[in-house]
Amino acid sequence: MCGQLGHVNSPVTVPQQIKLSDGLRVWDLSAGQSHSLLLADGDCVQPVLLYCGQQQEQTSAQSEKSQQGQRSCQRSPNRAESYTVRPSLLPFCMEMGYISSVCSGGQRCAVLADQNVMGFISAIHELASIERHFYCWLSSAKKLLLTPLRNKESVCPSLGEPCTHLFFSLCESFVRLSILIGRHSTSLSYFLLEVQSSDVTALPLLTHTEHFMDIYKEYCSSVGNFEVMGGFRSLQKLSLECLGSQQTVLAQLCADQSIGGDVDLVSVFYRPLQQLHQYSRVMLKLTACFDVLTAEYQFLHQGCNQFDSLSLSLLRKKKEAETTFLFWKSHSGKTTEVLRLPQRRVVCESSNRSLTLQNAGRFSNHWFILFNDTLVHTQGAIPSQSLFSTHHIYPLSCLWVKPVTEDSSGHYAIKITCPEESFTLVASTPQEKNKWLRSLNQAVDQVLGGAGQGSSPGLTAMARTAPYTFTGEGCFKDAQYTGAWLAGRLHGRGTMKWPDGRTYRGNFKKGQEEGYGECLIPNKVLNKPDSYQGQWRDGKIHGFGKYKYACGEVYEGCFCDGQRHGYGMLSSGKLAKNSSSVFIGQWVHDGKSGYGVYDDMTRGEKYMGLWLDEQRHGNAVVVTQCGVYYEGTFKDNKMCGPGLLVSDDDTALHGEFSDDWIVNGKGVLSLANGDCLEGQFTGEWTSGLKVVGTYTKPPPEEPENKERSSLHKVGQYLVPATQRWLCVFNECWSRLGCEAPGRGERAAAWDNIAVTITTARRQSIDLTRSQSKVLECLEFIPHHGDPVTTANYDNIRRYLSKACETPHHPLGWLVETLVTVYRMTYVGVGSNRRLLRQAVQELLAFLTHFYSIVRFLFPGLPEDGGIIPDPPASASEGEHNSNVAEQVVMVVSCSSLLLPQLLPRLYPPLFTLYCLQEEQEEALYWERVLRLNKQPDQSLLSFLGVQEKFWPVWMSILGDKKQIVSSSKDACFVSAVETLQLISTTFTPSDKLLIIQRTFEEMTQEGKPMLDGNFLWCMDDLLPLFLYVVLRA
Length: 1033
Fold this sequence. Notes:
- With 1033 residues, the chain is of the alpha+beta class.
- Helices cover 37% and strands 26% of the residues.
- Among the domains are: 152-189 and 199-329, no CATH class; 345-448, Pleckstrin-homology domain (PH domain)/Phosphotyrosine-binding domain (PTB) (PH-domain like, Roll), CATH 2.30.29; 627-698 and 714-719, no CATH class; 721-870 and 888-910, no CATH class; 935-1032, no CATH class.
- α1 (120-151) runs antiparallel to α3 and α3 (161-193) packs antiparallel against α5.
- The longest helix has 36 residues, at 295-330.
């Protein structure tokens, strides 16, 4: 720069750089017609004002000052021949205060200055000044040192591969820090322009504290990693080659250090850490400008503490890096080099034999090195020569430290627990024990995310979450685990992944899979994994779960020690949605044993009976899609022995079977018309039978042969209803905590229910609002030990109703499973009309077993058909009721209590069987009903014989009573008809009788206008009218 707009005696057309004194940093300038003003940082905090341009010839100062508010003006000097090229300091600028901006125009100039109230303005200017100075230093270091070194071709070979990567990472973090400081210094300059109206809490240091701290931490970490790996030694040589004769550059960047060693270069890169102390110091000054109770003070005080803590923390990290570098320098060697990592810092080591292994051999050498991330145990070690034969690395994230109480042996011991082993360390003195104990606890605390400073000996977290890779032999060999720990053992939720592709996600307890978990097991043959979702115990599949096999089969049921055991359903087949076969029933040691239903969809047959070792064995029923019904005995997976076979047209054969559908032996064949064939039968039922016997055609008047009819009676070879589905009820007892039905603690059963419901609420995220409300109600344990009276009986009914609504409750699971097995048995091929009696007996057995569980939970309930007493009355009520001869009692049965929960869900298959059984009678009944319903009301009432006095009337607008019109339909006794229709919504006999009673009441109410006040129904009048209501309903 030379002159303004060419106003000089000898014009210069080429711009020239201003020459300033050392230590001056211009941060604002303004140009007038023939002069320039420059605002710069000087030796002190207060900015200085520089001037260059035309000068007055007079010796006396001819300047006019006018100060008004916070603004000051300086008239530019008159035009003269003298001209100042080099900016000179204006002495009177120190009297103007703290200038934040300059402005010029024409022959005049102005400055914006602020009064320093309570030191606030000076503190802000000091912060801006030190930040601009720091940015200038960063720019110089980048220009003079980093950029030449980075562009040098020999930097990679000289530093080596690891250090080269760290050096470039250091350069990137240095650039990010430089950008941050440059932006911050600029924002502070803009902040000064409106400092009077700005809020101090809007300072970038307070609004972006986390960003500042992250940048400084990243930079300090980069410098430390580079130093630990010995990069500065090679970098020092490169800097000497790169700078050449410009060795004074290092002196400029680090003026307070001498030249000639690694320390100088290290100190240059650690120089930015000093800026954090400057931030803290300036903010401490700013806090003195505000009252302690103000928000500004709180913000500034918090920021001051944060930057002060960060400064101390980074200085500690600097010292750790220096100590680690010296450790590797003094213990350099091939064996120790494998332990050297950029992020690893040494904490302490036992080369002075201050720590050894308990019960170690007399001539064995053990060297322990504690780093910030691992504890290293070397054997056969010679620390002075940095040699050792073997070493073990224990990650601190999975290391538990516990002091051992001193005993008579006088050992100062520390117990170390790891996931795969535990050992005891012995210190030489109590002081060494405390030193190592404190160092271990602090290092573990730091790894777990703590500050690492406040840990007391022996108080590191027992429960934690950390990753770990198993190396020892066992079921977890080479597996990678991420999850929760407790005192060195897997405990809580976690994920385990094996090298072969196995994966487990779920709960652990005491080092093994326990509770709910999901597992994937690869199948290399089919190139698809097996998957399991369900319960585990002691590291094995145990409890209820769902297993999907790679072949397409799906098993959902109970497991025991990794085997299918108890109730379960296996769907087989390769189709996506429909399986070719389904088995539901009891399993024993991974095989079908006990009662079960097998639906072979490919053959169109359904087997309902006993199993043994995966084979059909015992009494059973088989029905086919062709309507054939067979009941008999099975042996070795085939029909064997006596059996009854009934075809769809009621042809029945009772005889000896030797294989599936093959008859071989004596038998009796009864035809649908009553004819009978008795003799020796051989052959297959479907292809034809050979008979040697007698054909009998009974005369019409001959009475029925009871002996022969008993042979063809359905139900002779059925499995008793009480012995079916015992595995389902046993599973329910197990969920209540009982080893066998009725054998268990009632309080423990209720506790299990509460835990199950609470766990379901916490883990199920897809619950609706109504489901959550039901579970919330079920969390409260009812008063189960109180005697059951008519007063609290309804509370039990309401609780059972809610419990049966949700499968998370053991009773709700029982209801859901009973519905599943019932529908699997009697839906589809099982819809055979001859199974009606069996289905009814099975439902009654359900009620009996179900009621025993309910009575276990509520012991105050009476036996089936028992009486519930009224609650005890007070003395006055007792005297009042003493004259009453009879009292109303309540009879409780399993049907009245449990049918409302079961029958609505089981009604469809049961009603289907009933319709098939009574198909002809049902068709005839509905034909008559529909024919009669076509008649209008008047005709139907007359046909049924209803007297005309019971025919309803309707009121005209004028109030006249008129009889029903002959063509009207569905206009009589409407309320009674609608009431009777509600009978289809009830399921217990008592509830149905209540509907019928209400129907009669509605009929009476509607007939009152036609009857006398003292009228009583007689059956001759009531029955025809009720028939009308039934037909219309």
